[in-house]
Design goal:
Helix content: over 70%
Largest sheet: none
Oligomer: single chain
Strand content: under 5%
Distance between the termini: 37 Å
Radius of gyration: 22 Å
Order of helices and strands: HHHHHHHHHHHHHH
Number of strands: 0
Shape: globular
Amino acid sequence: GLMFGVGGSVVASIQLSRGKLKVARINMSQAFVCCIVIMSIISVLCVIYANEIVTLMGCEGRLKEGAITYLRWFMPFMPTNILLSMGLLFLRVDGAPKMAMACNIVASVANAIFDYLFILVFKWGLQGAAVASSLGSIIGAVMVLFYIFNKSNKLSFYPIKLSSHSMILMYRNVCYMVKLGFSAFLCEVALGSMMFVGNITFLNHMGNAGVAAFSVACYLIPIMFMVYEAIAQSAQPIISFNHGLGIRSRVIKAFMLSIISSIICGLFFAIMLFCYTDVIVKLFINEGEEAHNIAIYGLPYFAIGLIPFAFNIVVIGYYQSVDRPRPATIVTLLRGFVLLILSFYAMPMLMGDMGVWLAIAVAETFTAVYIIATSLLNRR
């Protein structure tokens, strides 16, 4: 959803800046249709092979039964979830951020209400949780559909033609959108990579207690990532539109504002982790447990990487916004895979337990250094 949403919204924003309203509508419609078709196929496969998928993930016993139940009730409605996440990006491009926020809030509140009813009142368990999430996304998706099928809006749905010539053009456009949005897809995968590699490293060096301590960071990372990603996505329509117009000064101004905002947020999160480590850890782990002491020791070291983490996410968003998919993909691969894996491998050997906690910070810092160095070299 992010891959097609980010790629399609950047293309649509650039086309709108050039006065090509019909082309922007076509691009948006092609992104929606292709993404939903692909997601529908994936959803059907997940329902059919639910048992095989959860077995592959290592589920056993009661966990396996619950995972299959949730998967089979959640995945059929995944296309509406994708429609909602994509719609938020296009609505912002169309100058309707309040409507995008309304769609998101209504879907979230509906999800929470249905969770309460289906799980606590009707006692439907995991099936109820899955249906609640699905109904929340359906309500948000319906709001998005009302917007994009309203012809009075600039970015309204344009019917897809099925002629061979139209299909060839659609294939070319979709490939370009995927190329632009691929780094957004990788950023999400990189979160999983960070947690997966981190869990293995903590398990090898500190045992189960270490994994439990690292889980505190794993709860915090997605929240921080969403804040940084929100800053990047908020700047994207402004940067893409002015990039299409060729107004470099506005592009730089919006980019610098997003950098400053993200660094302030990163600094805030780091200070909170430094000053209130004990309070934050107690939210997840009981005092006196071995994992509690490990988390208290390690989270301040983990916090060091929050500022370069913020910087890197916003720069990736900038590269996407100005039609530079190659550097966006390179930076994403560096911070989320190459440097991350190297850091988790090398830092524990160099600095012991401290190195395990510093691995993410080292990967993010070296990525930031790479970004700054390449930017300075390109200026020359």
